[in-house]
Structures are given as structure tokens and as C-alpha cells.
Specification:
By secondary structure, the protein is mostly beta strands. The chain has a domain of 333 residues: monomeric porin ompg (Porin), CATH 2.40.160. It has four helices and 16 strands.
Length: 514
């Protein structure tokens, strides 16, 4: 989307508005008009190089329960956190139109019209993180890395020699938001937010439109609505930043706004339409912007990840508004501690599986609970029998006295989550097993001696047979001082079970006897 910001930069040069001056300009003729245009150009072009600024307007929101850029304020849980990566590509986010004209480049009499693609391609990867130290407050951090290329623009208002092609860290953003009114599941909630950026882009890739020349700060009001599968939200705020110029267009402090709408087609899939823009309440070209993005958010069941993807385009031409944008994001969300999502941590929630209010300690307001198991009667399948909270089907309100259904009550079942093997062997302990008649721990199907228990002594203990004489020397292990070494049968201490030799003195005595 070309912006008629620099008509070489004659788009902003105008003769005097008095009738007399117009007659004089007409008498001078076309040649003198063009001469005035070129004479004015250097001064205006010099303003274009006054300060740099960021052309990236896509601002992915850290944390869960947002649109793509428009912030929500249904922060949840205590010490919940998230981390993710968002990548977006923008085509032609900064294009300047130059021409020869007495008015602007849209004038039918304008000539020499040319589009200067200052930034033709822009890719930004945003590392995102958030922390919810208390249920209503979220702190977020965004650190971008950006690649840009294009014609660039020099002080004369023409393309830089060799163009620009650069990679650098963009301006890091620290932000916070707080829910002022409403509970997590209320139809309407209201909050406020603020943010601050540091000019890292200028430090890492100066004069490439990756970052602003100065720190910026802003505030926003947040409206967040939800009705069944539909959701809608809005942001309205203002940002302060140092001024930068493109031709006679001044960029600087402005009002910013965002509007989002969502439709949750299923627990996994949400369709999102998101629009955002800014204005200086000026009719000057390039000072007003609006972009619309359409995409999806995918939340796989039993997964902590949220995947976002979509495309967008500019609706109102402005610096940073691309012809086409595409984006993809992945976020890991940890919100353990609030199963029912009512904003009340499970540790303080009397109905941890049913959304409720803080006044009712996490239970639905006015809900009746006849059996006192913290599950309201209208959600309790057994309203007269209290649930037995044992980690097995605890949300249905019914006691499960035999979780594994093996006929052995849980309070007597040594393996309450594993059914008993009905085989006539220890069928009353509730544990799966195999027959072992001699009770030596070796199943009968593997036991070579199923009626004689194994003597567990570290010697052939897996065959199921007792081994009373491990070294097979005729001395039982209970009497064998060397159970793993066979006795030497030499007539000398043969009853101790240890290998030995006859002493020399004993040998001499034996010879004399002979």
C-alpha cells in the first residue's frame, strides 16, 4: 500500500492559498512550478531522516485468553505462566509514493509517479512470556528479532544505494494488565493495562526501521465480553513515543485501538477476527492505520499448548500497514490449580470441578448440596450419597466403592486400581496374580518344583526348586562353611564343606603308621 508521503517529496509542497498567489503561480508556468517543487524537495527530504522508528505494528499478546493482538483480561490462577513464540511476515509494510505535482500524488495531473518500497519484506519472531502472580494481574514480556529488506530511503527522498537488508533485535516490551471488574466467567469484564518498551532496535540495527529512536510507553483500557461460544473484546489507549518524519508526515504519539471477536466452534477450535490500528486524528497521509486479521486458535484436548495461525491485510493506509500479513504462533500455558476455571485456586475452592463465585467459596451461588460432597445437586448423579474423593471419577458425585470392579471393596483391596485375577489363588487380596502353590514367588508355570518352595539364597533362585547343597559336595548348606566351594574329600576335615589340603605333619604320621 503506497503512501503519498514524499512526492519526491513534492506531494506536500503547495503554493500560497491566496487567489493572487495562484494567479502568479499560473503565470510563471509549468516550468517554474517544477522548479519550485525541486527546490522544496531537499528541505522536506531532510526531515525524513530526522529520526528512525519501527514499522512493525503487529503486536502479539502474551498469555492465554487473548485474541491475536487485542488483549483480553480474563487472567486466571495464581502463579500461572506461559511461554511461546509468534512469527509474522509482512509484505510491503512501508511504501512511499513519489511524483511531480503541485498538490499530491493522487492529483490527475501528477506525473512521474513511482513507488519506493522502503521496506518490502519484514519477518519478526516474538518470544513471549507471561506470569500471573495473583488471579487478576498478569505481567507479560515480549522480545522480538526482526529481518527487513527493501529499497530504503536516503536524505534526498530516494532509494538508498544497495537498499537495506538487516537483522536485529527489536524493542523489548514489558507490559501488565489488571482485571478491575468482573469474575472470570462473567459475561462482561473490564480491566486496564500499561506497557513500556526499550529502544533495543536502534542499538542492534540502526536506520533500518526495526525499532523506535526513544523508549515508548502506553496505557490501554480493556473490555472483554463472552456469551456462550461467542466472545468479543476491545482495547482503547494511547502511546507516547519520540517523533519521526517521512516527508511531511510526522509519526509520534498517537491513540491506538483494537477490536476482536471469536467463535468457539468446539473445545479445540476457535475462529478469531482481530483488527487494530492507530490515529493522530489528522488528515495527513500515513498518520492513520487499520489492519484486519482472520485466523484460528487451536487448543488440543489435554494439552497445554495453544496454536495460532492466520492472515491479514491493511484497510487504512499507514506506515507499518502491509499489503499482506501471515502469522503462526505456539504458546505453552501452565494454569494448574484451577480445574473449573472460575478464578479461584483449587486449594481455596469448595467446588473445584464446578465453576462458582468467590462469595460461595468457588461453588455456584445458591447451589444446594444435599450430601455435602461439594458437588451441587444439579450436577451430582448421586445427590444423596457423598462422593468418595480418591482420584477416581470424583466429579460425578457418586461413591465408587470398588474402583477396579473386581468384587473386592476398595477398603480391603490391596490393588484398588488393578482387578483381581480370579484363579483360586489369593482371590481376596484384590491384586492380579498367577497360581503359586508353594508361595515362593515363582509362578507355577515357571516353577520346576511347584510344591517345594525355592530357598532364596542367591543360587538358582528363579527355577522354583530348593537347593539344599549349592556346591553339591554332600555337605548341606546349613552346615557348609563354604557353601559355594565344594569340599575336598581327602580325609581331612571333610565335614566343614571347605576345600583344603592335608598338612605335612599329618602326612608323615600316616606314613609311619603304614
Amino acid at each position: 500500500m503506497p503512501l503519498p508521503l514524499v512526492a519526491l517529496p513534492a506531494a506536500r509542497f503547495r503554493p500560497s492559498t491566496s487567489h493572487r498567489s495562484r494567479r502568479i503561480a499560473g503565470a510563471v508556468g509549468a516550468a517554474s512550478v517544477l522548479g519550485l517543487v525541486f527546490a522544496a524537495a531537499p528541505a522536506l527530504a531532510q526531515d525524513a531522516a530526522d529520526k528512525e522508528f519501527s514499522v512493525q505494528r503487529f503486536d502479539p499478546a502474551p498469555g492465554p485468553r487473548n485474541y491475536f493482538s487485542t488483549r483480553g483480561v480474563r487472567t486466571d490462577g495464581k502463579m500461572a505462566w506461559s511461554a511461546g513464540l509468534f512469527v509474522n511476515y509482512a509484505w510491503k509494510p512501508f511504501v512511499v509514493r513519489s511524483c511531480f505535482s503541485e498538490t499530491n500524488c493522487d492529483d490527475p495531473n501528477a506525473s512521474g509517479i513511482d513507488d519506493l518500497k522502503v521496506i518490502e519484506n519484514l519477518v519478526t519472531g516474538d518470544a513471549l512470556a507471561s506470569l500471573t502472580p495473583i488471579p487478576r494481574l498478569q505481567v507479560g514480556l515480549k522480545v522480538p528479532v526482526t529481518w527487513v529488506n527493501g529499497d530504503g530511503i536516503d536524505e534526498g527522498g530516494v532509494a538508498k544505494q544497495g537498499g537495506i537488508d538487516a537483522v536485529g533485535m527489536g524493542d523489548a516490551t514489558l507490559e501488565g494488565k489488571y482485571r478491575l471488574h468482573g469474575e472470570l466467567r462473567d459475561p462482561f469484564v473490564v480491566g486496564v493495562g500499561a506497557w513500556f518498551t526499550g529502544p533495543l532496535g536502534r542499538a542492534t540495527a540502526k536506520d533500518n526501521y526495526i525499532g523506535d529512536a526513544t523508549p515508548t510507553a502506553g496505557i490501554r483500557g480493556i473490555f472483554d465480553g463472552e456469551q456462550g461460544p461467542f466472545s468479543f473484546g476491545g482495547n482503547l489507549g494511547a502511546v507516547y513515543r519520540g517523533e519521526g518524519r517521512v516527508g511531511s508526515t510526522t509519526l509520534g504519539p498517537e491513540f491506538r485501538y483494537g477490536v476482536g471477536a471469536g467463535f468457539k466452534a468446539s473445545p479445540v477450535f476457535r475462529l478469531v477476527l482481530d483488527g487494530f490500528g492507530g490515529t493522530k486524528f489528522s488528515a495527513k497521509n500515513g498518520t492513520n492505520s487499520l489492519e484486519a486479521d482472520l485466523g484460528v486458535q487451536i487448543m488440543p484436548l489435554d494439552s497445554p499448548f495453544v496454536i495460532s495461525a492466520g492472515v491479514g491485510t491493511g484497510l487504512i493506509q499507514g506506515v507499518g500497514v502491509p499489503t499482506v500479513r501471515a502469522f503462526l504462533g505456539v504458546m505453552y500455558v501452565h494454569e494448574g490449580g484451577d480445574k473449573d476455571g472460575d478464578g479461584i485456586p483449587d486449594a481455596d475452592d469448595q467446588c473445584p470441578t464446578i465453576a462458582g463465585t468467590a462469595e460461595a467459596q468457588g461453588c455456584p451461588a445458591g447451589a444446594r448440596d444435599s450430601d455435602g460432597d461439594t458437588i451441587p445437586d444439579d450436577a451430582d448423579k448421586c445427590p444423596k450419597q457423598p462422593e468418595d474423593p480418591d482420584g477416581f471419577q470424583d466429579s460425578d458425585g457418586c461413591p465408587e466403592l470398588d474402583n477396579d470392579g473386581d468384587g473386592v471393596a476398595d477398603d480391603q483391596d490391596r490393588c484398588p486400581d488393578k482387578p483381581e485375577t480370579k484363579n483360586g489363588f489369593k482371590d481376596d487380596d484384590g491384586c492380579p496374580d498367577e497360581p503359586d502353590r508353594d508361595n515362593d514367588g515363582v509362578p507355577d508355570k515357571l516353577d520346576k518344583c511347584p510344591d517345594a518352595p525355592e530357598d532364596t539364597d542367591g543360587f538358582e533362585d528363579t527355577d522354583g526348586c530348593p537347593d539344599p547343597d549349592n556346591d553339591n559336595d554332600g555337605v548341606p548348606d546349613q552346615q557348609d562353611e563354604c557353601g559355594d566351594q565344594p569340599e575336598t574329600k581327602n580325609g581331612y576335615q571333610d565335614e566343614d564343606g571347605c576345600p583344603d589340603e592335608v598338612p605335612a605333619d599329618d602326612k608323615k604320621k600316616d606314613k609311619k603308621k603304614k
